[in-house]
User: What shape does this take?
Amino acid sequence: MTAADPTRQIRPTYSPSPGEVASRAAEVRRNWLLSAPALTLLFLAASGPLLVVILYSVLTPGEYSGVVWELSGDAWYRVILHRDIFDDTVSLADAHLRIFWRSAKLSLLTTFVALIIGFPTAYFVATRPPQQRTLWLFLITIPFWTNLLIRTFAIMEVIRNEGIVNSTLMSLGMIETPIQLLYTDTAVLIGMVYVYLPLMVLPLYASMERLDFRLVEAAYDLYATRIQVLRRVIIPLVKPGIIAGSILVFIPSLGAYVTPRVLGGGKNMMLGNLIELQFGQGRNWPLGAALSLTLLVIVMIALMVYVRNVNRSESRG
Amino acid sequence: MQQQVSEESVLIGSDRSSKSMPLMIEAIDVSKVFGGGDSMITALDAVSIGIREGEFFTLLGPSGCGKTTLLRMIAGFEHPSSGAILLDGSDISQLPPYRRPVNTVFQSYALFPHLTVAQNIAFGLQMLDRPKAEISETVDRMLSMVKMEAMKDRLTSQISGGQQQRVALARALAPQPKVLLLDEPLSALDLKLRKEMQIELKRLQHETGITFVFVTHDQEEALTMSDRIAVMSEGHVLQVGSPHDIYERPANRFVAGFIGETNTLTAEVRSATADRVGLRLGKRLELDAELPAGMTPQETVTLVVRPEHVRLTSDTSGSSLPGSISNVVYLGTDTHYHVRLDSGDELVARVQNGSASDLQFGVGQTVDVAFAPSAVRVLRD
Assistant: This one.
């Protein structure tokens, strides 16, 4: 190499020749050209629609649907404030705030319950012999093969007043009258935990599978009881999995549409349903767009908290 | 045959009267069986061993001999299928690891990657709910003992293998266990570091006075560090004794072959008394050797002679054990001469280089082989 190119030996610091600069520029051009299809797709599929949503949120709603090309801050105003149609008094849009609150509460609860159920499940799978783990993971992913709507209706069958849960409890004599589960927040919670549980189990499993169980042995040897081993060794080491699983469950829960619609009935709306309402019966596309962006902001804040947490835990360990 | 030998070692190992030191660990007829049915594996077969308080005791054997299983049972990670393990006189066989005043230095070190060096060392003390002041005082003492003060706030991934080894030691010693178990802790280190750590371990054992139980497959490591060694094979203890005993007076062919290099020769029995035999080797070499306790010699016996005890001379006139050099291996400080005896046996003689005699032999040269009767050990099998 050096023998074939003696100039390199004379000039120890490398400076490109004019020909090389030109070829560098050509290379940059070629790279742009090669990534153009991906960039186009990215724009059409992600940035483009987002820009449309942002634009719509600052326009005026049309008579029946759609938008009128007239700038207005009304949609954003109405996300959290409500003006009475008779006396123009301004108050907080408590209907919206209640739905935000319910969405946040149900999503956090879903995440929490999924974690409580998912953690031992992932631990169980990760402690099986390697050849068995694939089978367990396969079983966990089976529900994904069926349409979400069908699975949600199946849940409905299970928890409705004449469903398996109530009829079993009644035949056992544990209750006199059926418990009203369907069309309550509890029903929505059950449905969402069921639907999103695999999203919790899989990242948890991924980090538990990498866990060195000799560390667990070392902790036992150093006088840690089972609870202490869990708190002081296992949880800190699988924390990335816990955070990833929680994010993966929390974000879709927040925007869930089908589950609250089917299991929550009409009155237990979540953000997803509220947004749908604005584009449908509400005929207020700008408000729907503004609500969508609000959801996006909430998710981004949640993600930023996550990233900061991960960075902090990585700089520590 | 092996069973018979392990019975003898029970007597050697747990004989309380022979030394005044009380026993810290006593394994009584401990067996461990893994699996069941056709795939049943007996890892330990009725092993009995006594480990004295404050000694450096080594379990030595090839992989799969059951030494690690025995160590894990003392630690509490495995429970005996039958038999009992006593610690300081009380039965601990069924206690979980966190109820035993015993700590382990793991082969992989198993340091907690999310904790700093100091936090790793403090872990056991925190689990024991020791007061904060005591913990920080002990951690500082341990850090200085293993010379790791400068590294106390590092994560364990940020220190070298040898340093990790020291932290693992400090972590296991910090709660002041009655027994420290070491599971091949030096096997991951390079030769130079391993030699340093051997001396370091011996020093720590001396300083702390804690009973060390060390598992290794490295016979040299066992010889240099131990007060006593138990040689194990296939789930049995073959011999328990001091390094000198094990090396100079191996109980059987396996021990003789496993510990150091050795020559085995077959000799004809000429005469026998209660504790001595008159032997003849080859055509003319006659010697008198000590007989192991309780052994009745057959017509022939097996002898072991260490290579360093074999003398070679080029003067073959009137030779009693003649042979010829078949191979010469130069090893720096020594030269190994492989000799084929006229009787058909092969043996190795180790000759120190640079000695006054400065012997030099070539391949094919005829030599006379000799050794002192005291260098010869009669084997049981």
